[in-house]
Known about the structure:
The chain is an alpha+beta fold. It is 24% helix and 30% strand. The protein contains 3 helices and 9 strands. Strand 4 (65-74) and strand 5 form a beta hairpin.
Amino acid sequence: MIPETLQTELIKRFEKVFKGVFFKGQNGEKVPVKVYEQHLPIPKRNENPHDEFAEEDNSLSFYPAIVVQLFEGVQEGWDTPQVITVNVIVGVYDDSEDRSGYKDVRAILRKLAMDLTKNRQMKKQYSLPAPPRWKVHDEDTHPFYFGAMLLEFEEAIQILDEEVNKLI
């Protein structure tokens, strides 16, 4: 499995985990968690041809969000498995005065960690040998709250074509 396939499979998995789960949206309504590949979409300006100063965009509609980012791959030796590092970034919008958006971030991170703990394999090609590490963003970004989870997947060692030919 190539790293991009791992990323795609994680996105599918996280979408299943959060199916039917809702968090606060931009207008106070409950909205589903959206899962994105590598980055949030580029915000689109709300172009109003009758107002030259219209600058609203749709970026608030991206939240709550999970972004699955391929970060790096490291293989220490030719006969060792590659380790693929994936960053999972969580963001929520919460404009409440009690500034409790971080609790939603933690709830999302906890739900992801629980799912990964139950099944540490991805298509029998990657395994998660160590528990995920997580962190809640500590800077004041109200009304947006962020957190991240670091996943280090170990790739199953692939037999090179030359070795297969020797066995045939």
